Amino acid sequence: MSTEVYLVRHGETMFNQLNKVQGWADSPLTVKGIDDLKVTAHNLSQVHFDKMYSSDLKRAIDTVHLIADANEVSNIGKIKKFPAFREVFFGTFEGDDIDQTWEKVSLAGGMDPSTDVNEIINTLGIYRFREATKKADPRHLAENSAELDDRMTRAIEQLTEEARGLGRVLIVSHGDFIKTLGIKYWKQSDGLHDIPFPENGSVSRGILHDNGKFEIIDYNVKNQDLLDM
């Protein structure tokens, strides 16, 4: 039996609004973030889920509870937290200005200074981009490609085991983590270059197969389009 997975990005946070790097660092949902999530929650309110999960960061936990509370056709019960579905870790850059961080990463990757992360990724490729981020980090704590790929694999394995026998589940995660899953598992990605960053409150839909194979079939779906999924 395959399990349908709805991957939701949390709502807008204070760090999103202030243009700060936000990986394992956490900041609260904004009023706009909550209002936008109410739209997502309404559009998912008639979708039956056997279980809901989230990463262990508060912005994801708050998001999943808002969605669960609005759902009219599911009996969710306890919501389990999966640390493996945390956002990408940016090490020393956590909480720093995003544009200044990308300039440093660009230089570490041998490029002219650029604050356009899409340009950096498409020039270096996603794997070299992660290495450049770790290199630019003064303490070299930021996750590189191998570390992040290991964590993504562990996340999918844990979810496969947890959701075995269930028809449909929802898990709230984070923008860069979902995007990296998309680069690896979305059929429209070539596995190397950048894809659109998922919007706050958007849904990406995947299929978990019993053999552990995972594929994303819808990516970054938002607002009224959720009703057509």
From TrEMBL:
InterPro entries: His_Pase_superF_clade-1, His_PPase_superfam, PG/BPGM_mutase_AS, Phosphoglycerate_Mutase. It is an enzyme of class 5 (isomerase). It comes from the Bacteria. GO terms for molecular function: phosphoglycerate mutase activity. This is Phosphoglycerate mutase. SMART domains: PGAM. Its EC number is 5.4.2.12. Coiled coil: none annotated. Keywords: Hydrolase, Isomerase. SUPFAM superfamilies: Phosphoglycerate mutase-like (SSF53254). Pfam families: His_Phos_1 (PF00300).
